[in-house]
Structure formats: structure tokens, C-alpha cells
Amino acid sequence: MKTTNPQQRALALFSIPVFLFLVIPTAIVVPVALNDSRYITFPPEGISFAAVAGFFADRAWTSALTASLQSAGIAVVIGVLLGATAAIGLHGRKFPGQPAVVGLILAPMIVPTVVLALAFYQFFISVGMVGSIVPIGLAHAVIATPYVYLTTRASLAGLNPALVRSAQSLGAGALSVLRHVYLPVILPGLISGALFAFSVSIDETVMSLFMQSPGATTLPVKMFTDIQFNLTPKIAVSSALLVSVATVGLLLQVMFVLKRRSSARMLPLAVSAQT
Amino acid sequence: MTASVISAGSVPRSGRAAQGAIELRRVSKRYGDVVAVDELDLTVQPGEFVTLLGPSGSGKTTTMMMVAGFEEHTAGSVLIDGSPVDTLPPRERNLGVVFQNYALFPHMSALENVEFALRMRKVPGPERRQRASEALDRVGLGKMGDRKPRQLSGGQQQRVALARALVFKPAALLLDEPMAALDKRLREQMQEEIKTLQKSLGISVLFVTHDQDEAMAMSDRIVVMRDGKIVQSGPPEEVYNHPETDWVASFLGDTNLIPCTIVERDGEEAVVDLGGLGLAKVRDRGASGENYAVSIRPEHLKFRTRTSAGNGCAATLLSSTNLGATVRHRLMAGGHELQLRELSSDRGAGIVPDEELWVGWDADKAQLLVLES
Amino acid sequence: MSNATLAGPRPRGRDSPPSADSTPRRRRSGWWLLLAPILAFDVVLFLTPLGKLVGASFADNAYQRVLEDPLVLRALVNTLTISLVSTIVTVVLGYVIAMVLWRAGNVTRVILFAVVLLPFWTGILVKNFAWAVLLQDNGLVNAFLQGIGLTDAPIPLLHNRFAVIVGMVHCLLPYAVFPIFSSLTSIDDRLGLAARSLGAREGSVFRRITLPLSLPGISAAGLLVFIISTGFFITPVVMGGPGDMMIANQIDYYARQLTDFSGAAALAVILTVMVSILVAVYQRVLKAGGQHEDN
Predict the structure, then answer these.
(1) Could you give the CA distance from residue C107 to residue C254 in angstroms, rounded to a whole number?
(2) With contacts defined as CB-CB under 8 Å, which chain A residues touch B61?
(3) What is the ipTM of this complex?
(4) Residue A182, min C-alpha distance to chain B (Å)
(5) Which of A82, B37, B209, C120 could form a disulfide with C38 if both were Cys (CB 3.0 to 4.6 A apart)?
(6) Fold category of A59-269 in CATH
(7) B71 touches chain A (CB under 8 A)
(8) Which has more confidence, B311 or B54?
(9) Residue numbers in C near B107 (CB within 8 A)
């Protein structure tokens, strides 16, 4: 096949600015955070860790970081437990009402986060759960669970349900089937699901904003509040921290794609974009 | 030889009338270190139906793709009607191509599919539609013009693909395993239709297939390919009856291969020693190698009486299998296991009860060939 | 999967003799145990809050109140126009990227995939912060425009609708690329070859074959991107001006500024219903696209 005709060269040429448009914003974040200047500029004037030191010396920012990690921890643990058990429970089974169950599991991805934020805000006030990171973590778990369910389900796709049944007919008990049949198969899906859950929680802003309290202000909420007044070096450092999380997630996902050779399948996972 | 029945089409860029001669001169295709096609020389005469026959990986499809212009050859030259087309893109080569699975445009009706080439040649609307429906009429689908490809059967899709490839009056037609997706019965019917169409149009065809029956049924000439090289070419009967190597003999059908040593070679005939089967007179194409064998097709072995003339020897019957139209007998003769095939209606003819079983064959049906494996 | 692994662990007690009737019973009970946690969790922490929200929306004549609020109407119009423009830009740019991915070799494709996924993994505030840095008066974009002599003084690129759309398109691009890419890869390569053999130039191949056959991907991408667009909340605040507030911002305004819960709930229900209808259409489009491929 001829690969270099003028049209394809034109396409490649036109696509360069589009790819730059995708990359540049993320690429500048770390240099901006290490900029040796009191002002936020790019390109940086020199390299300095002053802003990083300032960030970690500021109680308001470090407690925001702690809050974010706590909420992500809650979201990952709950998301992994619920998402994985649901995927295994539904694997290879058809029953009346199954589409409704799957629909319910995936529904949190479709509802706009601002709507969920409002609903949780009212709900947690009504049950008297305010002023701590727990309701925020629970809310994040609600939107993180479908991701774990989907990645686990994807890794189960190659496992023949008949095999599991044959394991059971050979006398394997439910727990040993879980451990010896399911766990090895779902492990990659579980890891990537946990990563998704962590990333969803650490970046989530809207729900955390509605449910914030002095002791429970997450990193994105702190950034959102500050950014409306000024672009500060501490926001830049916080962004750089989140970008490193994103990079790890991205690299693991690319490795996953490379291993599976199915680039298209896994991606349009999420309707629940954090907007 | 431009006796095209399909209405006058666009004149090729050279200005001369299309003859449809395709010529490959020492054409090679390399992918890095891998040689897919190795210095191939091949000519398709105007009006000739030439089949590239070979197993997958033999380079036959690559060869066709290079003629069509979809693959660039790495050495040699491709000529159409005497002029090199090496630098021409596919759209300027004026060749009709029918692909495996037809590659019909799924979003266009049958008529729009056929119109496509004329639209690309800026033929005005009314004339375009008329010529396209004439082409569909010719393949018996005049009433199906409005249907989308998925509403047509496999055979109908095949016909649309043919009409689409012929409507712009190409210099030649290239067919890449066009019948692979059809069932046996439809395949045989389409083979006849394509052959009839090709004869009435007088168009040259380069046909690619791995199915030796199809090649036998359709071709004026079969070019057998293996590992990017031509191993034998000639009219179907000749290639079938007089293979030059045991590989060709086996690839083209069942055969009995009896190792032999040459006693005497004389032009087209040779005398060979078949070991336990004695001396025999066989056909010789002059191929030379280290080891030799004689190939006799199972249908050329006959039950005979001991007294009859020609080659033959005593045999014992091991088993018989009814295959419907024919019966296959397994025999032991002179230390060799042989297959003999005869029509079911002739079953047992030539076997004389209470006498020793005797098999024989005509000298011109036994072929001396080179043992490669 | 080796048989040894399956047969390895020996069962204990009553479970051990596997018989035709005991196996299905055990399987069924195990299956409900596995589904129970997520169902309980979603009922308590997802359906109940949403139910309460819907309940609250019917109090105090909320729907009528919010729909008569000119600010709400403005936000609705903003939401529709901003989402529409973002969707069109996103789909066009997404198509370009999908074409490049489609035509790229294996190694290039993986690298470019990573580039496309980068904004997907980056948090919304990080992206908006980066765009604010780039688009501010002394930012890189203005420096570039001044550098090539397009302008002498900085152009206000931030805190306006342009900035909102830039920020949104950047977030949305990955969601457009993948549906289009997958519809492109489902096109049989031989169709392009056939068109070329029939006399088509590259431009005609694209216009008459590739583009029409990727329409299912385009409509899926467009719908998905539009659905996500309608829920944007952070970007209009960080990148936009006062006149660029969208429906999500209006929900926030009712809830946290006016402390009018029923009004906020009514707006939230309106947004959810809108999105649900679009999601239903989206799934139908996906299904239709799938059927097309099967044939």
C-alpha cells in the first residue's frame, strides 16, 4: 500500500497542531511548578523548588492533600470490593432483570456530577453526616465503582463460565473458586480499575466542593477556590502532583493496551467525565 | 480484439485501443529480507484467461496487487499493452478488479456501485445511469439496481462486483479469489458465468486462486506459483497430466508417485525402471534433478487382463471406498501402494473373476518428474 | 487454565460430594451474595439521594419558579450554544486525530494513543489551570501572537466564551476520537482499493467512501461529547466570564448562594432528564452502528 501521498502528508501536517493542543497544557504543568519566579509564567525563567517547599509548608495545602488521599483511599477500597464482586457475580449469568441490575451499576457514570453533588449534599445533611471526609469518600466510591466493574468485567471476558462450573463440579468450594479461578484472571482488571477509581477520586471537584467543610477540603477544591482569585505557585505545585498521578495511570493503561492489543475497546469507558 | 459487448467506454490514456496484454518482466517484491515475489516473468496475451494458482503465501495475490498498482514492486517492470505502468497509480491503469468478498460499497445501491467508475470519469448522469444499468442487465441483475449489497445474495453481490469492474471497459480484468465466499454449487455456476462473459467480451483475465478445480475449469493457462516463483505454467490439461515436479503433481490433485530410475531418455519419451513394477515407457518433459518418480493419476490406472498391451502388473486389492460418482480402490502392486479411481457405473469392469488382478496404464498418461521432497 | 489449578483445592465437609442437584443450588446462592453488596450500596447511596432530590424538586412550585427565572433561561441557552459549538469543534478535530491513528503504524499508534489519553487522565482543574497559564495576558499564546506580529498588545483570551470552549474541547477530545476511530477501523480496507481501481483519487475515496462509512462513529462521538458538555461546571467558572455560566453553575447558585434546595433540585432533574434522553439516543445509535458492522 502506498503510504506517502500528498493527502496523507497534509493530514499528518494538519494533525500536528491538534496533537500539540492535546499535549502542551499537561506538559507545561511541571515546569511551571518548578519556575524560579514569584509569578506564574511559561516558559520558566529558572528552576527552583521554592514553590514545592512552600506548598508542603502550608498547612492549608497539606491538609487538602491528606483529605484527597483519604477520600481516594475510601473510594478505591469500596470501589474494588463492590465492582469486582459485581463483575464476578454477573459473569456468564443471564436472568430476568439482569439488564436492570447492570443499568443500576453503570448509572452513576451517566448522571451529571453536579446533580449527584446536589443529591449527596442534601442527603448527607439529612442523615447528619457532615464535616468529615467520609461522606466525600463515599460519594467518590459511588462514581468510582462502575469503572472497577467495567475493567473487571473486561478482564473476565476471556474466562469461559463453563470452566468455572466445571471447577465447581470437581468439588471446588465457592471461596477456592474465587481465589484460584477468578482472582488470577481479574487481577489486571482489578489493578486498572483501582487506578481508575483513585484517579476519579483524586480529580473529583464538584461533589467535594458541595460537601466541603473546614476539616474536609480536598486538593481540587482548594485549587478551585484559589484559582478564582489568582494563579499561584502553590496551585501549580498541586497541579504537578496530580499530573504525576495521571502519568502513572496513563503509562499503566498504555502497557495494558500493548499487552491486550485491543486499543479501541477499553476507552469510551466513561461518560462520567469530571467536568 | 476489442470486441467488447459492453457499450463503448472511456478510451485509455494512451489513446490506443485497449488490447489487454499484461506483461511482468523480472518483477520482485521484498518486505525487508523476505522475498514475496522473486523475479517473476509472466505474460497475459490479449483475450487470454490466465490463472495464478498456488497455496497461501506463494505470492500470487501480491503479484496481482502489483499489477493493479496497490503494491509497489521492488524490482522489474509491469507493462500493460506494451507500455510500462510502474509509476501509474491504480486509477490510471484502467484495470477492472474484483476482490475477495467483492468489496462492494455497503452504503451505495448496486446501481450506484456500478456507476462509481463512470462518475469518477465524469460521465454525465443520464449516460452514466444507462451504461450502469446495461452492465447490470448483462449480469442478469437489471431489476436489482436499487438494492443495497447486504440485500443481495452472495452470488448476486459477485455479479454486481463483476459489472462494476467491467462497466468502464477496462483493458483487463483482475480477479482475486472472487468465489472463495460462495458455496460449492454457486461457485460452479459462477465459474461458468464468468467464463462465458469473458469469452463474449474477449477480455484478458488474470485470475488468482488456491483452488485447483477452479483453475482447471476456467483457465486457458495455469501458472503454478510456490514461494514467490513460477514452478510450472501451461494449459490446464498439460499441467495436470504432465507435472514437472512431485509438488505440482500433488498440488493439482491426487496422484500415484512411484520412485524410479531412468534407463533411457529419448525426446518426449523415456524408459524407466519402476523397481517391483518393472520397466515402463513414460512421458518425459526433460526436467532434470537428483531423484525421479513417475506420476500416474488414479483415474488413469485401469483394471486390465494380463494379456493386454502396454504397462501393467499384478496387484492385490486392499480396500474399496465408494465416493458417490467414483469408487476409490487401494491396491498393492510391485511393493507399492497405489490408488485407482473409476466411475461407479464402471465398477469392477476389467476384473476377470478367478484370475489374478492386473492393473495397467497408457504410456502417455504416465509422467516422469523430478522428486523434490 | 490448567486443570490442576481447578481441581487442586479440596473442598471440606458437606460441600465435597459434587452431585447434579447440589451444584446449581450452591451456585445460585453464591451469585446473590456477590451482587448483594453493590445493590445495597447503590440503593442506599445512589438511588436514595437521587430519590430525595426528585422529591425535593416538587416542593414550593420549584419547576415553575426556576423556568421563569431569566438567569436560568440564560444558562440553558448558554449550555446549548456552548455545548453545540464545543461538540462541533471536538468532532472535527477528533476526526483528524482518528484518521491519523487509523493510518499510523503500530508503534506510532501507541504513542499517539497515549497523547490522546493524556487529557483523559488529567484532572479538570489541572487542565483549566494550564490553559489559564497559557491564555493569560502574558501567557505563551499571547507571546506567540505578538511574536508573529499578529498583534501589538495582548488579546484578552481568558475569562470569555472562547476560553470556555478551548478548555472544554481539550477535555472532550478523547471522547470523540475513540468512537470515530473504531468506526474507521471497521471499514474494510479493500473498499478503498476498489475505489482507487475504479478511478477514484484520494479526495474522492475520502468523500465518497471513508466519510459516509464513518458516519455512525461521527454521530456516536457527537452525542457522547454533547452529553458530557451539558454537565460542565468547573470550566465556565475558571475560564469563562460572568456571561458564560451554564446550567450546572445555576444549580450551584441555587443550592449554595440562594440556599433554594427545591429550585436547585428542579434544575438538576431537568438536566438529568435531558441527559438521559440523549443517552438513550446514543445507545440506539451505537446499536445501529453495531448492526451495520455485522452485515
Answers:
(1) 50
(2) none
(3) 0.88
(4) 40
(5) A82
(6) MetI-like fold (1.10.3720)
(7) yes
(8) B54
(9) 212-213
SS3 C29: helix
Asked if residue C126 has pLDDT above 70, the reply is: yes
- Residues B100, C194: C-beta atoms closer than 8 Å: no
C179 and A CB contact within 8 Å: yes
The residue type found at C7 is A
By Cβ distance, the residue of B69, B89, B164 closest to C198 is B164
- Average pLDDT score, chain A: 86
List the CATH number of the domain containing B267: 2.40.50.100
Which chains sit next to C, with 3 or more Cβ pairs under 8 A?
A: A, B
CA-wise closest residue to B111 among B155, B163, B151 = B163
Q: Where are the domains of chain A?
A: 1-48, 59-269
Dihedral pair phi/psi, residue B352, rounded to 5°? -95, 120
Q: Which of B307-316, B329-338, C265-274 has the lowest mean pLDDT?
A: B307-316
Determine, yes or no, domain membership for B311.
yes
Q: Is the pLDDT of residue C265 over 50?
A: yes
Q: Per-residue pLDDT tens for B263-276? A: 998 888 899 998 88
Residue B214 belongs to domain spanning: 22-239
Give the model's confidence band at C29: pLDDT under 50 very low, under 70 low, under 90 confident, else very high: low
Measured at the CA of B203, the angle between CA B199 and CA B205, to 5 degrees, comes to 100
How does DSSP assign A82-148, residue by residue?
A: HHHHHHHHHTT---TTHHHHHHHHHHHHHS-HHHHHHHHHHHHHHTT--SSHHHHHHHHHHHHHHHH
What pTM value is reported for the model?
Answer: 0.84
How far is Cα of residue C293 from the mean position of the Cα atoms in its chain? 23
From the CA of C182, how many Å to the nearest CA of chain B? 17
Residue B78 within any structural domain of the chain: yes
Look at B103 and C188 and tell me if their CB atoms are within 8 Å.
yes
Contacts of B89 in chain A (CB under 8 A): 2
Chains with 3+ CB–CB pairs under 8 A to A are B, C
pLDDT at B3 over 80: no
Residue corresponding to grid cell 503500530? C106
Residue in this structure with the C-alpha cell 457514570, named with its chain if needed: A109
Q: Tens digits of per-residue pLDDT, C63-101?
A: 999 999 999 999 999 999 999 999 999 999 999 999 999
Contacts of A171 (CB under 8 A, 6+ apart): C7, C10, C11, C15, C16, C17, C18
- How far apart are the CA of B70 and the nearest CA of chain A, in angstroms? 5
**What confidence tens digit (pLDDT) does each residue in B99-113 have?**
988 999 999 999 999
Q: Which of B351, B264, B261, B265 is nearest to B301 (CA)?
A: B351
Q: What is the pLDDT of residue C290?
A: 55
**B14 domain residue, yes or no:** no
Which amino acid is it at A83?
Answer: G
Q: Find out whether B89 and B44 touch, Cβ atoms under 8 Å.
A: no
- Cα separation, B296 vs B362, whole angstroms: 10
Q: Chain A window 58-87: which residues touch C at a Cβ cutoff of 8 Å?
A: 78, 81-83, 85-86
